[in-house]
Amino acid sequence: MIGLIAAEITKTFKRRTYWVLTVVLTVVTMLLVGLFLFLPRVVDEGMPIFSKPEIYTVGAAQVLGQTWFPLILAALALAGELATSAWATALTRNSRRGQHLMARMLTATISAWIAMLAAIALFTVAAFFFATGSGSLTVEEWLGIGWKALLVQFTWVGLGLAFSAFLRSVGPAIGGAIAFMYIEGLLLLWPAWRPVSLSLATSAILGDLAAADFGPVIGELPEFRTALITALAWAVGAALLAWAGLRFRDA
């Protein structure tokens, strides 16, 4: 298992697509910097101006809201290799398929987490120099952002792997995962869906990272414990779906 994880880490950081995605995330982060640090200064009204230290948590929440990143990264980690006959045979027929899947889930999660932390650091540095006010977050608050970011990546990576296991091709897997992301958000309009909504659970996990008018628009946030259980249930369910896709799709 350790050898599989080490091999996956090496492959992930050698993939050009990982660095392309990271560049895109960096560009999005810079757009967020402009939106939250500079645009409010030139708009007369309608946009709140956040000061330090609040701007740090606002920026972290906005970066972590880019759930497309772990979805696409997970699809590339699995669907790309399922497209080749050799890996398709190994991943769907080999008795170690569960270990292969777990290795990809762990490495994609860690890779997405590292990229997200780097993007948060970028926003934080910009806020340090350009935001008004003073003060910083405590060590406990920064650690809270870190582990919550890891959990969010783990959950959405699992979904990306599930789509990959069933669709078996990078394009359809990415398209299906992104479509799910938007549809799941729209389902918040349906009250019956909100107790099991991953989007709402993610917002509640980030809880204290949401600020002012950038909290949930629909309904109230569930309690943190409830949101944590919901997110973990989605992660476990996604992992099981991914395993089932590898095990039974071609049976």
What do these coordinates show?
The chain has 251 residues and is mainly alpha-helical. It has one domain. Helices cover 75% and strands 0% of the residues. The protein is built from 10 helices and no strands. The protein has helices spanning 2-14, 16-42, 54-64, 68-82, 85-93, 97-130, 139-167, 170-186, 198-206, 224-248. α4 runs parallel beside α7 (139-167) and α5 packs across α6 (97-130). The chain is globular. The two termini are 25 Å apart.
Order of helices and strands: HHHHHHHHHH
Mean pLDDT: 79
Radius of gyration: 19 Å
What proportion of the residues form beta strands (DSSP E)? Answer: under 5%
Q: Tell me the number of structural domains.
A: 1
Tell me the helix content.
over 70%
Number of strands: 0
